Amino acid sequence: YTYSTPPPAMASPGGSRPMTALSSNSMNFGPLRDAKVTDNADHFLITLEAPGLTARNFHVRVLPDRVLQISGETFEEHAIPLQDGGRRVERNHNTFSKSYTLPLSSDLDNITSHADAGKLCVRIAKKSAFARGH
């Protein structure tokens, strides 16, 4: 893994480590460029702008050592008619992956995600002992 530049960081209460982005894929495919990480009172929120992508393009999972991985793929196929009556088919397949080390304040049993209108949102609840204002 290599650290992204600059790594998005999230301050977390209680002295636990901040959330940092790790990149396990050197591709700079659309959704990876526009990741936004915010620290709210009772949850963290990761938002990826991904025009044209839907929920089935994304996979969100928690790996060992508190690593949240967001990955996915796209596949496009275009048929181009040729003058001799045949056709040429062009295929484009892209994969992407972005990983985040979650802070100790994260509730690993309470992570949800949804995609709508070209945007993926991943909500990571904080453990009640770490939530501000509770």
Q: How would you describe the overall organization of this protein?
A:
- A hairpin with a 2-residue loop joins β9 and β10 (119-126).
- Helices cover 3% and strands 57% of the residues.
- The chain contains one helix and ten strands.
- The model is unreliable at 1-17 and 22-28 (pLDDT under 50).
- It has one helix at residues 30-33; strands spanning 2-3, 9-10, 19-23, 35-39, 43-49, 58-63, 67-81, 87-101, 106-116, 119-126.
- Strands 1, 2, 3, 6, 7 and 8 form a six-stranded antiparallel sheet that branches.
- By secondary structure, it is mainly β.
In short:
With 134 residues, this protein is mainly beta. It has one helix at 30-33; strands spanning 2-3, 9-10, 19-23, 35-39, 43-49, 58-63, 67-81, 87-101, 106-116, 119-126.
Detail the poorly predicted runs.
1-17, 22-28
Oligomer, anyone? single chain
Can you tell me the overall shape? elongated
Q: What fraction of the residues are assigned to beta strands by DSSP?
A: over 45%
Indicate the mean pLDDT: 76
* Rg, alpha carbons: 18 Å
Order of helices and strands: EEEHEEEEEEE
Q: End-to-end distance, in Å?
A: 36 Å
The major β-sheet equals: 6 strands, antiparallel
The total count of strands amounts to: 10
Structural class: mainly beta
Output the number of helix runs.
Answer: 1
Level of helix content? under 10%
